[in-house]
Amino acid sequence: MVWKLITADSLPSMPWKNGAGTTRELLKFPASATIDTFDWRISLAAVATSGPFSLFPDIDRTMIVTDGQGIELDGIVLRRTDDPFAFPGEFPYRASLIDGPIADLNVMTRRTRFSHLVRRHRAVGTSIARGNIRVIVALSDRAICAIGTESITLRRLDSLFVEGAERADVEAADWLEIEIQPAPSAAAT
Known about the structure:
The chain has about 190 residues and is mostly beta strands. It folds into 2 domains: about 10-110, Jelly Rolls; about 115-189, Jelly Rolls. It is built from 1 helix and 19 strands. It has one helix spanning about 185-189, and strands at about 1-5, 15, 20-30, 40-45, 50, 60-65, 70-75, 75-80, 85-90, 95, 100-110, 115-120, 125, 135-140, 140-145, 150-155, 160-165, 170, 175-180. It has a 6-stranded antiparallel sheet with strand order 2-3-4-11-6-9, with no helix packed on it. The protein has a 5-stranded antiparallel sheet with strand order 1-17-14-19-12. Strands 5-10-7-8 form a 4-stranded antiparallel sheet, with no helix packed on it. Strand 15 and strand 16 form a beta hairpin. It starts with a strand and ends with a helix.
């Protein structure tokens, strides 16, 4: 079993594909991939202005608002208290901020290679190993993850990358469980 703590404040910021915001990349695969060649990617974004979303053909996306009052995507309103929102990366959404800037967490997978599932938990719980890559993200001020005999403390927006068969018991008021697995067509090849 492998795990790695990724603190939000350790992540460098880089400009968006469309130049209208910034992103801090948590994880991507392969590690040497660019914004155009990744198979999967998890990032935190700062959204300061309204405008069109960057298009990512052949990419499935899920986002969740982590800070600010919210964002509207062509009539779909997303707020900090909402569950994750999944959509195809090639859909030309136009984003309108609600009462100022927001921040969000994004999960993206190249649908011919990988798929993902993002679950929001609002209580103490367990992340069960299903043979896939898992990432736990703290949405509350403090989360404690117990993996085997290890106890790891996460601050808000810190992440824990978990690869392996052990379960992770999470003590937190609000947290995300991201699961990434090979796409069925990719696993068959």
